[in-house]
Amino acid sequence: MNKIMVVAAHPDDEILGCGGTLLKHICQGDELYVLILGEGITSRTSVLQQEREKRVNILESAVKKVGHFMGWKKLFTFKLNDNRFDSIDLLDIVKIVEKAKEEVNPQVVYTHHFGDLNIDHRITHEAVVTAFRPLAGSSCRRILTFETPSSTEWATPSSSRSFMPNIYVDITDTIERKCKAFEIYESELCVYPHPRSVKALKAAAQYRGIQVGMEYAEVFSLVRELL
Questions:
Q1: CA distance 156 to 115
Q2: What is the tens place of the pLDDT at every residue in 34-51?
Q3: 210 within a domain of the structure (yes/no)
Q4: pLDDT tens-digit profile of 79-95?
Q5: Residue 208 included in any domain
Q6: Distance CA 25, CA 19 (A)
Q7: How many Cα neighbours within 13 Å face the side chain of 195?
Q8: Are strands 142-146 and 217-225 parallel, antiparallel or unpaired?
Q9: Entry pTM
Q10: Half-sphere exposure at residue 113, Cβ-oriented, CA atoms within 13 angstroms
Q11: Which of 96, 146, 153, 155 has the greatest number of beta carbons closer than 10 A?
């Protein structure tokens, strides 16, 4: 049994990026811990403060329902301002990640890719790599980054920052449950052909699977593995 930890910027990123893989971990008997750093919604609305708080609470309630549906061992949530992680000292975010790390002591960590368009994703990646630096005695043996629809693929193409997957996970047996988990995030669902629609989510997994002879797959870029 391994302890698996996901560090995501916003509610739903964890399902979009690696939901099918997380379900496989749970089926294998692994314990799953999820840290969500931001509230994930206020940058998209200019409504009154009372309504903003209501929408934040709705999204927070949704992530708790997703955790129950998925079978997470524990959920850690913070409410850093959406798309404003760059207004916070990086050290403060690192300390949030470190505190969860010290409680969980995971062997495997999943997080965002460093080249994503979304600023919160990029800072989350930096905080995770900093918090999980390979010191003697560290429990973490593997760090992987995932692609996040409407962020990873929308970044400016660059040979040094583009997402280049080198690990493919067969999620044929878990794709339907991943989609059902995503549907719990009602406020985040978009209409096809938006990348954050259920139809597009399945199409993306099918495309990744086709690349390596699988029906559906999730892909990752390996940051570090200690053997």
A1: 9
A2: 999 999 888 876 655 667
A3: no
A4: 999 999 999 999 999 99
A5: no
A6: 10
A7: 15
A8: antiparallel
A9: 0.96
A10: 26
A11: 146
